[in-house]
Structures are given as C-alpha cells and as structure tokens.
Amino acid sequence: MPDPITEFLNVDLHLKSVENLEAVCEAFGRAVMVLHRDKVGRNHWLVLELSRSPKTPSEAIRRFVGLGARLRGRAKAAWVAADKELDIGFQTGFEPD
What is the C-alpha to C-alpha distance for residues 12 and 48, in angstroms, rounded to an integer? Predict the structure, then answer.
C-alpha cells in the first residue's frame, strides 16, 4: 500500500469579538458553513468554512477577503471589530503532493 500524500483540505476562518457576529454570518449567507459559534463571557466566537471547496489555500483566502469586502452596515462594523485567524488544513502523509 503506498504512503499517503500530503494534500490541502480547506481553510477555516476564526472570528473573535466583543461584538455580536451574527450579522456577519447572515451577510455571508450560503457562501459559508458555520462550524462553530459560541459566546464565552463577553467574547463571541465564530468559525466558518467556505461552502464551495477551494482548490488552494490562496483561493480560499481570496474568497474570504472578498466576502469581507462586500459587507455593509452592522455586518461590516462587526467584521472590522473582530480578530481574524485563518486555519489552513492539510492531510499529511509521507510524500509531497
């Protein structure tokens, strides 16, 4: 059996803010899937993944940036106030892709 190769899976966007992030989630609509949402103390947490799987990490990051750039009103204010982190996921093996 051959060794598994290393391959890109997806990029998750983690948002953390004292602002409610539901407006961001609603504005992104079907373009994203909500993987996790929570409120701990004053902090709101939201973890999103693109609904349509990107082929590369760069594509995923560009699509998240594009979604953020199109936000308006409350959603834009919540987006600007949020701390953002990208989690790039790979399936690792012993051979490069």
Answer: 6
> Residue 48: in which H helix or E strand, if any?
strand 43-50
Residues 6 or more apart from 10 whose CB is under 8 A from it? 49, 50, 53, 54, 60, 89
Confidence of residue 92 (pLDDT cuts 50, 70, 90): confident
Band the pLDDT of 5: cuts 50, 70, 90: confident
**Nearest of 70, 18, 5, 37 to residue 49 by alpha carbon:** 37
Element (H, E) at 17: strand 7-17
* 64/33 Cα distance (integer angstroms): 12
Residue 14 parent element (H or E): strand 7-17
Burial code (b: 16+ CB inside 10 Å, e: under 16) for 59-93 equals ebeebbeebbeebeeebbebbeebeeeeeeeeeee
